[in-house]
Design brief:
The protein has a single domain (about 1-85), classed as Phosphoribosylformylglycinamidine synthase subunit PurS (Mth169, Chain: A), CATH 3.30.1280. The relative contact order is 0.34. The chain has helices at about 20-30, 55-70; strands spanning about 1-10, 40-50, 75-85. The chain has a 3-stranded antiparallel beta sheet with strand order 2-1-3, with helices on one face. It is of the alpha+beta class and about 90 residues long.
Length: about 90
């Protein structure tokens, strides 16, 4: 078994209203960042898991995202996956 670390990024689909993103955009403009055209807010979830190989880890992550980490009706997700660094005892 190999330990893996994944960064899962979840975002609202483009057709879904993003009130948090609008609030951030407006606040940035108020702070003087007038060039900000649009902001879409999302979430980053870090997952550490054990799997036999990369393909098994990717399959497990895809299942996690589809079943819990993202709402497929209104959100999209993508993840990066790397071998976890060795831990120091």
């Amino acid at each position: 078994m190999t330990d893996w670390v994944a960064d899962v990024r979840v975002h609202l689909k483009p057709s879904v209203n993003d009130p948090q993103g609008l609030s951030i955009r407006n606040a940035l403009r108020t702070l003087g960042f007038g060039g900000v055209e649009d902001v879409r807010a999302g979430k980053l979830i870090q997952v550490r898991l054990s799997a036999a190989n990369r393909a098994a880890a990717e399959q497990a992550l895809d299942g996690m995202c589809a079943q819990l980490l993202a709402n497929p009706v209104i959100e999209t997700y993508a993840f990066t996956l790397d071998e976890a660094p060795a831990t120091v005892p």
